[in-house]
Amino acid sequence: MADQIVTRFAPSPTGYLHIGGARTALFNWLYAKHTGGKMLLRIEDTDRARSTEAAVAALIDGLNWLGLAWDGEPVSQFGRVKRHQEVVAEMLARGTAYKCYCTPQELDEMREKARAEGRPPRYDGRWRDRDASEAPAGVAPAIRLRAPLDGETVIEDQVQGRVVFPNKDLDDLVLLRSDGVPTYMLAVVVDDHDMGVTHIIRGDDHLTNAARQKLIYQAMDWDVPVMAHIPLIHGPDGAKLSKRHGALGAEAYRAMGYLPAAMRNYLARLGWSHGDDEIMSTEQMIEWFGLEAIGKSPSRFDFKKLENLNGHYMRATPDAELLAHWKACLAHVEGGASVLDWMAGPGNADKVLAALPGLKERAKTLVELTDSASYLWRQRPLDVEEKAAALLDADGKAILAGLLPLLSADAEWSLTSTETIVKAYAEAQGLKLGKVAQPLRAALTGRSTSPGIYDVLVVLGKDEALGRIADQAA
């Protein structure tokens, strides 16, 4: 085995990086980082109908957004077909593979007979030991693995433990189809061997593939990588993860306003743990990660937990960094382009940065942040929500009219000065502070809830704030 640990992430390009794939990529990445090794990226694009450039770009975009950088250039499985065919030719020469001239009709009959007899449908090996002279004229053969007929194949899995497969259940699988196209089983083994992969970390839906792939390694006298098959992610109800549970692409989570660091933390905790630690920095995850701490049971996806974790990360992220993530989110949501245009206007980025400390305390996602920050770029006169409109009754308008000249006279326009004026006015009128602040909030934001009212006054700036109050005053 090589000195350096090499892992790989090998997705099929289906149009996006789904959440299970993202966790698999993360585990491979963390293990490579933890051991000082490398993580390689291979695109399993042999299905030409599905493997478009756009689908590959979406996968790479998802990995980049999550911050999971691979080593070297991505490898295209389809681009290695000649190499796969070379290996099969070598297996034929070794006698560990053979030519099979069965017609599709014969294979169908084999399956039907097995079903009728209550057996699993297996190839019956009819061409395994026949002489080449019996080959029918003009028929291109498929190439099959000459698998052992008895004994067992054992996978010493780092997560599942010792898994034993009777060889009688592993038939002579096809390595090369009659049209010369390699099968997935063959291509995966050849690519992993040639790429120097030492550790295969993937979903446990590949566990039966592991036994068949081990037979191919042995047929070529190649080292078999260490295997770790991770339980799949289920929904909160314990059922297989579906779109309603959160089986969405990475780009959907970006558009929903989640931060990459929060996603990494949340996905790491789906099936792996370090004591009772829930919140971990990426550096801590790299330091602590090990295959031995991956659980054997499926983990359950929980949006509420992800949301709460994301809220923590939003509060903990420095404002300038959070703004960069926010802009990345806005670039992928409906209506986000107009907000980005506004942010690019003179002085507006400064307004946003000034507002962020108050905004991020209340928001759990960047989408919520956008919603609560919308008072910054809304045009006068504001559309006022129903709840806020109720606060702008005759009494509310009278309060605004009383405040307007006092605030207009404020030359300082700071958190302290505006707070002093509003509190003094409430006291002078014999009103509770909330009775004054509520119509003021409604006039400034068009809403009944917002960040702290003095923050709003200062961030909007004196002219804009006074204009909005005047629009609603009696």
TrEMBL record:
InterPro entries: aa-tRNA-synth_I_cd-bd (IPR045462), aa-tRNA-synth_I_codon-bd_sub2 (IPR020751), aa-tRNA-synth_I_CS (IPR001412), aa_tRNA-synth_I_cd-bd_sf (IPR008925), Glu-tRNA-ligase_bac/mito (IPR004527), Glu/Gln-tRNA-synth (IPR000924), Glu/Gln-tRNA-synth_Ib_cat-dom (IPR020058), GluQ/Sye (IPR049940). Its EC number is 6.1.1.17. ATP binds at residue 243. A motif ('KMSKS' region) lies at residues 240-244. CDD domains: GluRS_core (cd00808). Signal peptide: none annotated. One of its GO terms (cellular component) is cytosol. Residues 4-307 form the Glutamyl/glutaminyl-tRNA synthetase class Ib catalytic domain. One of its GO terms (biological process) is glutamyl-tRNA aminoacylation. NCBIfam families: gltX_bact. Belongs to the class-I aminoacyl-tRNA synthetase family. Glutamate--tRNA ligase type 1 subfamily. Catalyzes the attachment of glutamate to tRNA(Glu) in a two-step reaction: glutamate is first activated by ATP to form Glu-AMP and then transferred to the acceptor end of tRNA(Glu). This is Glutamate--tRNA ligase.
